[in-house]
Amino acid sequence: MPFVFTIQILSLPKDSLIVKHPKKNPLVLRMLVLMFVMVCGVYICSVCLKQIGGHPTVRLLSYPVAERACDVADIEPSKKPYVHFPKPESFNREECACNPVRYFAILSTQRSGSGWFETLLNSHMNISSNGEIFSVKVRRSNISTIVETLDKIYNLDWFTSASKNECTAAVGLKWMLNQGLMQHHEEIVEYFNAKGVSAIFLFRRNLLRRMISILANSFDQNAKLLNGTHKSHVHSTHDAKILASYKPVVNASLLIPNLRQVEDLVNKSMEYFKSTRHIILYYEDIINNRTKLVDVQNFLRVPLRDLSSRQVKIHKGSLSSQVENWGDIEKALEGTHYQSYLHEDYKL
């Protein structure tokens, strides 16, 4: 027989089933709501600021954006190796990023008009020739330092007074043959051909004039005729006359060997660098025919401009008036193939 449980519900008064909570203060509730709103507001603001500042808490997917390639379709295939679009580390080329840049090097010897020629180039608003960079020995101590220096120059990261703006169209330097150029000629030729560097040879036809200029300049390095200051180049006729007042004595017995040595050096340099894209210029030709400067601008593929220089020539007139022992020089050169140097001249 199953057990039967019976539950008896007691009847209680109605009011006894209602649980009454203590009455809360409305001011406390308002404060709680206000604090909640403030916390939410601070949180929302912090999230917005992080998103604006580029530091989102959630890592978003990113896709690499390819840089716009510069259009070279209108450039002839044979000229493309000499057209460059450098990306300097020191500044942004901005709207000129796709303006092509040509690389060049002026290869010359001291007292051959290279300083004057370089000022002509730098008067062009789109050409930057950075001077005699390798006159500092440490920069030419070995081929590694030479390449490192060249890379910096051609990447537009070398700053001198000649540096132009981001729209430079041709950049280069002046490089003397005795500044590591001949010593490392094989590596430098390889660099020029690989990097598309064009060579501008600049020499003097009359090597006797060059020798006299060297002797006078060497004298002034010690004498310092211009108020105790040595200057290789001047910007006034007054200063030019003072420097030209010194007349050197040429060692006639060593004259021909010295001329031959320079002549061999010049010929050897042109032989070494004949595989590069190059142009050969002579100081006397530029003096007599200024259209040679048009040839240079066309060679560098820059817009044609009238080029100018503030430099004033120091030694003018006939050679006989510039040395003390002209008679000895005439005797030494008569009957040799250097005899023409005695009479060659050019208009100024």
Give a summary of the structure in a few sentences.
With 348 residues, this protein is an alpha/beta fold. The protein has helices at 26-52, 114-122, 143-154, 177-181, 185-195, 207-223, 237-244, 252-272, 283-288, 292-300, 326-333, and strands at 102-108, 127-129, 170-176, 197-203, 278-282. It contains eleven helices and five strands, in the order αβαβαβααβαααβααα.
Outline the structure in words:
With 348 residues, the chain is of the alpha/beta class. Helix content is 38%, strand content 8%. It contains 11 helices and 5 strands, in the order H-E-H-E-H-E-H-H-E-H-H-H-E-H-H-H. The protein has a 5-stranded parallel beta sheet with strand order 2-3-1-4-5, with helices on both faces. Strand 2, helix 3 and strand 3 form a beta-alpha-beta unit. The chain is elongated. The N terminus is likely disordered. This is Sulfotransferase.
